[in-house]
Amino acid sequence: MPSSITNKTPGLIVGSGVVARAFRPHLDALAGVCIYAAGVSNSGCRDVREFERERERLQTAISQLDTDRMLLYFSTCSIEDAASRDSAYVQHKRAMEQIVAQRSRYLILRLPQLAGRTPNPHTLLNYLHARIVRSERFEVYRHAERNVIDVDDVARIVLELVRDGACAETINVACTNNVAILAIVHGIEDVVGHRALFDIIDAGAGYRIDTARIHAALARCGVSFPAGYLRRTLEKYYAPHDSTAA
Length: 246
Description:
Largest sheet: 5 strands, parallel
Number of helices: 8
Number of strands: 11
Radius of gyration: 19 Å
Shape: globular
Structural class: alpha/beta
Strand content: 15-25%
Strand order of the largest sheet: 1-2-3-4-9
Distance between the termini: 47 Å
Helix content: 25-40%
Order of helices and strands: EHEHEHEEHEEEHEEHEHH
């Protein structure tokens, strides 16, 4: 299928965080697209002022877009999580999705736990990494699962979706399988060479993320999720650097 990107207006990125940086190398291929990658990044946020700030910024950005420009908005897969769907953050993301969906040309991309280079202490992986390397005790829910994807793979998948003509959809862009929190903890332990101090709580659960919509895009862009995907991703972002190397 030919690309739907016919608008030659240069691609535009709103935001400067980990998602925005992942899309910069692809900007030339995203003519006629606005990548909105700004807003509240802490899923534990309850500050109404932060939510209102994102709402105002999003509405301002939309008001300045040509009607034929595609808008990409990044939401959260937690909308489908029964344990999270009533949180202030998820309710906010639902409201932002409704604003975006009023446009004729948009994609809402729901993301799981991202792996990427970011100083944000609120991401799951950064939180676990910090606790482990600092030998700070934390709790791990025995039955909890999470879905982890490299942000660079997100960019490749989304680019392929846009190239294939995806429009006016809400799509989960996630790994095709969940992993146990304990597996993530042990993976970080192995990568950094430091044993974690944690207490296991007999609680937690996972939720299924439907990734059927991206299967064809995965095949076309060469992204896959083999058994070693988590380890490879953790090594990419958390392996210690040898400061003595030339």
